């Protein structure tokens, strides 16, 4: 009969390998936690792009630009929001009663949007001619039902969690978000 040799294992090597593996897993989890967030979509305000009950991956470090979909919270509002950026810092604006005329692009008022806004928002923005530095005007894609900058005002950069990059759940909808 042939004897099989048992491979000698070095306990120190096994311990070091286990410690290294745990450190690598911890590093990856820390990196993911530092750079990403999973954010729920609640309500129908983003219908067309996202649905109620979807979960999205938010990149905390990705630069945001006009038409980016972002995740954010508002200091005086409950819950978290997912909306699309329409107005950027420096965009020209004009308040007329409860209407906001927003000019986007390089030339003043060559491309404009007109929005009916809440009287409190109109009062908050009165006297301003541009969107201030570090503030954004956001809208839901389903504007008829969306609670957005028209009702709660401009979103401050510090309240923005990041840019939505992927729809994660339900799994059959797994896709990048532009």
Question: What brief labels describe this structure?
Answer:
Umud Fragment, subunit A; alpha+beta; single chain; 11 strands; 3-stranded antiparallel β-sheet; 8-stranded antiparallel β-sheet; 3 helices; 178 residues
Report on the structure:
- This protein has 178 residues and is α+β, with helices and mostly antiparallel strands.
- It has one domain (37-170): Umud Fragment, subunit A.
- Helix content is 20%, strand content 33%.
- The chain has three helices and eleven strands, in the order H-E-E-E-E-E-E-E-H-E-H-E-E-E.
- Strands 1, 2, 3, 4, 8, 9, 10 and 11 form an eight-stranded antiparallel beta sheet that branches. A three-stranded antiparallel beta sheet has the order 5-6-7, with no helix packed on it.
- A hairpin with a 6-residue loop joins strand 6 and strand 7.
- It is elongated and about 95 Å long.
- The model has no long low-confidence stretch (mean pLDDT 87).
- It comes from Candidatus Enterococcus ferrettii.
- Belongs to the peptidase S26 family.
